[in-house]
Write a structure and sequence with these properties.
The complex is a heterotetramer. Chain A has 3 helices and 9 strands, in the order E-H-E-E-E-E-H-E-E-E-E-H. Chain A is mainly beta. The longest helix of chain A has 13 residues. Chain B has 8 helices and 6 strands, in the order ααααααββββααββ. In chain B, the strands form 2 sheets. A 4-stranded antiparallel beta sheet of chain B has the order 1-2-3-4. In chain B, strands 5-6 form a two-stranded antiparallel sheet. In chain C, 60% of the residues lie in helices and 0% in strands. Chain C starts with a helix and ends in a 16-residue tail after the last helix. Classes of the chains: A mainly beta, B alpha+beta, C mainly alpha, D alpha+beta. Chains in contact: A-C, A-D, B-D, C-D. At the A-C interface, strand 1, helix 2, strand 6 and strand 7 of A face helix 6, helix 7 and helix 8 of C. Chain D: It is found in: Nucleus. Chain D: Belongs to the Mediator complex subunit 20 family. Chain D: This is Mediator of RNA polymerase II transcription subunit 20. Chain D: Component of the Mediator complex. Chain D: Keywords: Activator, Nucleus, Transcription, Transcription regulation.
């Protein structure tokens, strides 16, 4: 998939960092078709969704006060496009008024020696997974419907097994901090997906 | 029909007769008056005989004319074959085929005459693109020429693959963006890449770019027009055009391609070989871009003379 | 007298226009049936029926209205029958009745039903008069019972149908996603729960799903780490603490 | 992008850096080259925090020729220099790792100056500054059409002799190891890093490049 690198991202360097607004849900494989059908109708992709097949490796650097976690991701179906390095901050659930999960995030495109570089920086591979699915766009919203696979033997992305019988559904927007109107847009879009899938702000800490 | 045949026969006979009498007139005139001393009787006899002969001619001629006038009706359309029959079509306004036919015939005759003129001129000032003398092989050439730009695709592929295999650091790939015409992407070592446009097996255009320059446009199609941004490769494109003309062998297109590729392949050492004449690498900040067509000798463009 | 004539004229006009409407909609319907029978769907047929029946209703209303003088009291008397074509009549009837002759007049001007129908009616009347009141009562109850039964069946069928429908709707709320799966997927993506590299090679007998999942923050057994590292990142090997070269 | 050689031009004791730069610029202009803008290469250094077991250094280098790219070069004992090519967002990620990698106290090194074009050659004359103080001169000579060092080193040498005379460098040791590989902008960065390291007086552990 490789979220395209925004060449204008540099201009935002001085401004407060980018934030990701996120809603999550899941859909059983059996009902996948009806969800895709609805998304096809709702979203901007005229020629159906883009597909992606990515391998994500999560690296961790232990230390005080808290470990640093970086996610390295690369597309298995397009080996030539850059790898993606992603920093994801703590998720803030906020109060009832806030319609989505908000977390700071930094996306960075890199060359393919990323994993060895991270290891040399002292990071250790924490876990890895393969993710395969569809990507829809609606304005600046990004909707992914994807299946998560666990990697059976480390580093071998061909031998995989599904984590569950459901597809993960994520609705996200990356925007400069403080644009809470984004959340309302997302909330109203999520309404359109009911009752097939229930998009909610899931607090991972409570799960 | 038989009637006509008879008339024709008699007309033929009359013609023969006319011919006889005319011959007689001329023989008589040729013999002339035997002696110059001039007996009046002899002279007058000569004149009388001539008069007789001439009257015979006139009568024969009038007879023939009579016969031919009776034949005229029939012979009208015949000599022009089928097209003559077209002219008999009474509704000319609706089917102006005959007039068009005449027009086109006129034009094709004109074309032919112009072409033969041009051909004559060209043989006088030949460009000497080929090593074969133009005179002796004209028959052979006429046979081979039409085929070399309409070579079937698999033959082109075969030739390209054999050339591809014969050089280690020259790789060729064939594209056919517009159906029939093949476009070769040639990569020479890690020095340059070139696009060679073929028509059949004849090279039509060559463009040379750097090894790391894009051969494709943003939309993924081959970029056939943008020149290289590097001076060296712009120069090389010029040289390649010259080489293309030099190796132009319409009757042996395969050899043409092979020799062109051999020449192109010699550029693997573009940056690593010094000029053979002046012994330097640079001249005007450009490496030796010239390779002799026959010996592949390396030199700067300015050192050639 | 004049008033009566005026009323008659008005009511006739009204009737004629109603009948004209009715005729139009019937022709439209026939056209529909003839030309669009391939694409025709049930709702549009029902629409046409509804139009026709409403028009018949209004026609009946016109006939029964108080303003309409009792038409029964008027007499139509054919004075002359003519076997020739009558252009005016033909135009008036849109070509259906070309001449006012002996053939058509009895059909158009009759006031009674056809004889065989009359006969059948008579038969039924005699039959009815022969029945005893008890039998009539019995038949009425029978009929009612049957009707009730049919109503019940139809009602049941509709209830079942509704249940099915709501079942589908209900399912999409309940069964297209499972909260457990949602949680599993989100924890996996966020913390790698269930994705940690496990010593599959060392424990081939154990089912992967039965393995205890490692704690997110907890340290994995060192044997596992060292076994996995070299296979992924051979460069990490030289960098051991003990081998650090001295800096000058 | 083509084969590039970065080399140092010595500054004699009796002249200032600026004087020497002007002298070189004059020579290059005499060759017939055109000024085509300015350039800047800067380097920021992060040091791993003492609690980490291994002492490691990460240099973040930017080159104005590739304005959207950050080069992160990792140097550490016992490991070869490893260079990650990333976009500029990597700088922000480094800031998030404050607990582990701290920017070094020493000021930023950068090489800044004029950019000249001469046919297919590019010449950049850079003044190296360390926290605002001019420290020396770095010349960058690029031959754009060629991507293999082995092929065009002689040619490049001939070109450099044209205006550098006795200061013409020999093949940089970094390039010597990658003579046959395709040249990448990263290779230019590594050469700059080597030179920066000598300017800052850091100990340079020459590692075989990958």
């Amino acid at each position: 998939m490789a979220i395209p690198v925004n060449p204008l991202s540099q201009s935002t360097m001085s401004s407060p960092s980018m934030q990701e607004y996120l809603l999550q849900g899941s859909i059983l494989d059996s009902a996948l078709e009806s969800l895709l059908h609805r998304l096809r109708g709702l979203c901007d992709n005229v020629e159906g969704p883009e597909t992606f097949h990515d391998h994500e490796m999560v690296y961790i650097l232990r230390g005080t006060p808290s470990p640093a976690i970086l996610r390295a991701r690369h597309a298995l179906d397009h080996p030539n496009i850059p790898w993606q390095l992603r920093y994801v901050g703590q998720s803030e659930v906020g109060d009832k008024n806030r319609s989505t999960l908000v977390r700071s995030c930094i996306d960075c495109a890199t060359s393919d020696n990323l994993s060895s570089f991270l290891v040399e920086m002292g990071f250790r591979l924490d876990h890895e997974y393969v993710i395969k699915g569809y990507l829809f766009r609606k304005g600046r919203m990004k909707i992914t419907v994807s299946k998560l696979f666990r990697v059976i033997s480390p580093g071998v992305t061909e031998e995989i097994e599904a984590v569950s019988l459901s597809h993960l559904v994520e609705l996200s927007v990356v925007a400069p901090a403080g644009q809470d109107a984004v959340g309302d847009d997302m909330r109203s879009f999520a309404e359109h997906l009911k009752p097939i899938v229930q998009m909610e702000k899931m607090d991972p800490k409570r799960l | 029909m038989a009637e006509n045949l008879e008339t024709v026969n008699s007309a033929l006979a009359a013609t023969q007769k006319l011919r006889c009498s005319v011959t007689r007139v001329f023989t008589h005139l040729r013999e002339g008056v035997k002696s110059t001393k001039g007996e009046v009787s002899k002279e007058s006899m000569f004149i009388r005989q001539l008069q007789e002969a001439l009257t015979a001619v006139t009568s024969d001629f009038s007879e023939l004319e009579k016969l031919s006038s009776s034949l005229h009706k029939f012979t009208d359309g015949i000599p022009m074959g089928n097209s003559g029959l077209l002219s008999l079509d009474p509704v000319q306004d609706k089917t102006p085929m005959y007039t068009q036919l005449l027009q086109s015939y006129k034009w094709s005759t004109k074309l032919q005459s112009h072409a033969s003129l041009a051909g004559a001129m060209l043989t006088q000032n030949s460009l000497k693109r080929t090593s074969v003398p133009s005179g002796g092989l004209s028959a052979k050439r006429r046979k081979t020429q039409p085929t070399c730009h309409a070579t079937p695709a698999h033959l082109v592929d075969n030739v390209v693959t054999t050339v591809d295999r014969s050089f280690n650091d020259l790789s060729l790939t064939v594209n056919r963006p517009q159906g029939t015409g093949a476009v070769l992407q040639a990569t020479v070592g890690r020095t340059l890449s070139a696009i060679v446009i073929l028509r059949g097996l004849l090279i039509e255009r060559v463009i040379v770019r750097g090894y790391h320059e894009n051969l494709h446009k943003d939309n993924g199609t081959l970029d056939l027009w943008t020149p290289s941004k590097y001076r060296v490769f712009q120069k090389l494109t010029d040289h390649a055009m010259a080489a293309m003309l030099h190796y132009h062998l319409p009757h042996l297109p395969e050899i043409g391609i092979r020799s062109f590729m051999t020449w192109l392949h010699s550029y693997t050492t573009l940056f690593s070989t010094a000029c053979h004449r002046c012994g330097k690498y640079l001249n005007g900040n450009i490496p030796p871009t010239w390779r002799d067509f026959r010996t592949l000798e390396v030199c700067h463009e300015n050192c050639r003379q | 007298m004049q008033n009566q004539e005026k009323a008659l004229e008005l009511s006739l006009e009204a009737m004629i226009s109603r009948v004209q409407d009715l005729k139009n909609s019937i022709t439209q319907f026939i056209m529909k049936l003839e030309h669009e029978h391939e694409t025709l769907d049930w709702p549009s047929v029902l629409d046409s029926f509804a139009i026709i029946s409403s028009q018949i209703n209004t026609l009946n209303k016109v006939l029964k209205s108080e303003k309409t003088p009792p038409l029964r009291n008027f007499i139509l008397l054919p004075l002359v029958l003519a076997p020739e074509r009558d252009e005016d009549l033909e135009k008036l009837t849109e070509g259906r009745v070309p001449a006012f002759n002996h053939e058509v007049v009895p059909n158009y001007l009759r006031t009674k039903a056809e004889p065989d129908i009359e006969e059948k009616e008579q038969q039924l009347m005699t039959q009815a008069s022969q029945l005893t009141p008890e039998m009539i009562q019995q038949q009425i109850t029978n009929c009612n019972r049957l009707a009730n039964k049919v109503i019940e069946i139809v009602g049941n069928a509709r209830d079942e149908w509704d249940v099915d429908d709501s079942g589908i709707r209900g399912m999409s709320g309940i069964n297209t996603s499972q909260p457990a799966d949602t949680n599993a997927l989100i924890t996996a993506v966020s913390f790698g729960k269930g994705l940690k590299i496990r010593p599959v090679q060392q424990a081939p007998l154990q089912q992967p799903s039965l393995q205890p999942r490692q704690d997110v923050q907890g340290k994995a057994p060192s044997s596992i780490k060292t076994n996995i590292k070299p296979s992924i990142h051979p460069y990490t090997q030289p960098g051991r603490p003990g081998q650090r070269p001295t800096m000058s | 992008m083509g084969v590039t050689c970065v080399c140092q031009w010595p500054v004699p004791d009796n002249k200032s850096v600026q004087q020497v730069v002007d002298m070189i610029a004059k020579r290059v202009e005499l060759l017939g080259s055109n000024k085509s803008g300015t350039f800047c290469v800067d380097c920021e250094t992060y040091q791993s925090s003492p609690m980490m077991m291994l002492q490691k250094t990460v240099h973040i280098i930017h080159n104005s020729e590739q304005p959207m790219t950050s080069y992160a070069v990792m140097e550490g004992p016992g490991s070869a220099a490893n260079c990650l090519v990333a976009d500029t967002m990597f700088d922000q990620i480094m800031q998030r790792l404050k607990g582990f990698y701290m920017p070094k106290k020493t000021p930023k090194v950068e090489s800044k100056g004029q950019h000249y074009e001469l046919g297919d050659f590019n010449v950049k004359i850079g003044t190296v500054t360390l926290g605002g103080h001019a420290k020396g001169i770095l010349l960058e000579i690029e031959y754009t059409p060629c991507v293999v060092v082995l092929d065009c080193w002689n040619l490049l040498t001939e070109f450099m002799q044209g205006f550098m005379a006795s200061h013409t460098p020999s093949l940089p040791s970094y390039l010597a190891n990658r003579q046959d590989a395709n040249y990448t902008p990263m290779d230019t960065i590594m050469q700059y890093l080597d030179h920066f390291n000598t300017f800052t007086g850091r100990k340079v552990v020459q590692q075989p490049a990958r």
